[in-house]
Amino acid sequence: MTTFVLVHGGWGGGWEWGGVEERLRALGHVAHRPTLTGLGDRSHLLGPAIDLDTHIADVRAVLEFEDLRDVVLCGHSYGGMVVTGVVDRDASRISRVVYVEGLVPRDGECVLDVVPADVAERLRAPAADAGGVRLPIPLSHAEIVASHGAWYAERIRDQPLATFTQPLRLEREPGAGLPCTYIRTTKERDPTFDESARRARELGWRYEEIATIHDAQIDDPDGLVELLVAAAG
Fold first, then answer.
1. What is the mean pLDDT of the chain?
2. Is 77 designated active site?
3. 43, 77, 92, 95: which one is catalytic?
4. pTM for the full predicted model
């Protein structure tokens, strides 16, 4: 039996990992899928004080209060920033880290430093119109329905701005020396994650691919579970 903690990406929530959790539990594993502050069912808490440190504290609190140990910590997309911070601050409860096409930051970088400059600019522009507190959902409702379905479009929420602009301070290299796996999706090959994938290989991490869209947990939960279980072993 393996304990997984599944950390979602930007604009999302723990709800999007439901299919993966169900499949992991059917295989005899334990899975936790927290929702980060200001998002999903906690979107009513969104405010200017919510930053990357808040989300790192969210995950560390789950580990502590659920008394989880030997955890396989998984971060999807923006969640890569969060899990990198978690293991850097205290890796004692973590056995392995899996980046599901997650961002891989270096010391002093924020999300907008890790993604390509044109992506960062597209994200910054609407934030000013939103009062400098939130990052609006970057796609239209119709676009999200077309790619992910209405149920997904109804649940995503604006992202707290400071979670993307606060630099992450690291004392060690990403992954903190733990066994790490990087999973890259290939159906769309989003260039947003090219640099993170390159860094993962440079760090010598295990590298896997899955033929899905970026949100593999939505598009192919069976295939993703297979890779997560393999990474845990």
1. 95
2. yes
3. 77
4. 0.96
Looking at the domain 3-232, which fold is it?
A: Rossmann fold (3.40.50)
CB neighbour class for 136 (10 Å; exposed up to 12, middle 13-18, buried from 19): middle
Q: How far apart are CA 155 and CA 108, in angstroms?
A: 31
Q: Are 214 and 185 spatial neighbours (Cβ–Cβ below 8 Å)?
A: yes
Q: Which amino acid is at 89?
A: R
pLDDT, residue 129, reads 64
pLDDT digits (tens, 9 = 90+) for 129-151: 667 789 999 888 899 999 899 99
User: pLDDT category, 128, cuts 50, 70, 90?
Assistant: low
